[in-house]
């Protein structure tokens, strides 16, 4: 079990269901992105030479919509995540780690918007399967880095906080 999966399992049941549903949606999105261009699943040097012009144009045209969808999914997820964070007793808008985490969410959305711009600038250029692989890798890296650097430590800190509260309650009894 990955560190992130362990951290998510430490959430309350309701929070877990929301986050887990969104993570499944994000994973499905990443898989759909990977599958959208049949040639991108083949070896690294594969190009669209086996595809007709219509199929290649379809693959090229679908990528921006995938990226816009990623922005929508990420924005919704980040809103839910921030709501969950603020529901913790010790977390407020002024809490330093929360502010950093929120800023990271904003930075990711900016990165995703830049990827959309990059996607439009690559339209009609280069090898479509390579472009799909590149964007899949970039998106996967962005979300995995966020989980590792922000989500996991936050969940661990709230677990530490609730463990500390349990210890205080048991000492006072």
Automatic annotation (TrEMBL):
Q: Where is the Hemerythrin-like domain?
A: 18-146
Statement: the UniProt record of this protein carries the keyword Metal-binding: yes
Thylakoid in keyword set: no
Q: Which SUPFAM superfamilies match?
A: Hemerythrin-like
Alphabetized, the UniProt keywords read: Iron, Metal-binding
InterPro entries noted in UniProt? Hemerythrin-like, Hemerythrin-like_sf
GO-annotated molecular function: metal ion binding
By sequence similarity, the record places it as follows: Belongs to the hemerythrin family.
What protein name is recorded for this chain?
A: Hemerythrin-like domain-containing protein
Lineage at the top is: unclassified sequences, metagenomes, ecological metagenomes
């Amino acid at each position: 079990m990955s560190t992130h999966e362990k951290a998510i399992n430490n959430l309350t049941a309701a929070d877990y269901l929301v986050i887990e549903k969104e993570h499944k949606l994000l994973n499905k999105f990443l898989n759909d992105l990977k599958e959208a261009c049949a040639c991108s699943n083949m070896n690294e040097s594969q190009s669209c030479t086996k595809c007709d012009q219509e199929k290649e144009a379809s693959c090229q045209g679908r990528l921006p919509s995938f990226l816009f969808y990623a922005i929508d999914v990420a924005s919704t997820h980040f809103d839910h995540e921030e709501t969950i964070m603020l529901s913790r007793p010790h977390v407020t808008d002024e809490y330093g780690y929360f502010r950093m985490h929120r800023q990271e969410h904003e930075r990711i959305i900016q990165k995703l918007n830049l990827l959309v711009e990059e996607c439009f600038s690559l339209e009609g250029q280069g090898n479509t399967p390579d472009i799909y692989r590149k964007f899949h890798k970039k998106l996967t890296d962005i979300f995995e880095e966020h989980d590792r650097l922000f989500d996991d430590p936050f969940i661990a800190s709230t677990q530490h906080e609730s463990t500390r509260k349990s210890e205080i309650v048991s000492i006072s009894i």
